[in-house]
Amino acid sequence: MNDNDNKYAHRYNADTPLRIGTRQSPLAMVQTQMVRAALIMQYKMPQDAIVIIPMLASGDKITDRPLADIGGKALWTKELERAQLDNEIDIAVHSMKDVETIRPDHYCIAAMLPRANISDSLIGAPSLQDLPQGAKVGTSSPRRKAQLLSMRPDLRCEDIRGNVATRLRKIEDGEFDATLLATAGLERLNMGNIGCKIDTMLPAASQGAIGIECLSKHKKLQKFLSAINHPDTMDCVDVERAFLASLSGDCHSPIAAHATIEGHDIRLEGQILSPDGSEQQSGHIIAPRQDAIQAAHGLATQLLAQSSAKLQSYFGHPQ
Question: Residue 193, class by beta-carbon neighbours within 10 Å (0-12 exposed, 13-18 middle, 19+ buried)?
Answer without folding.
Answer: exposed
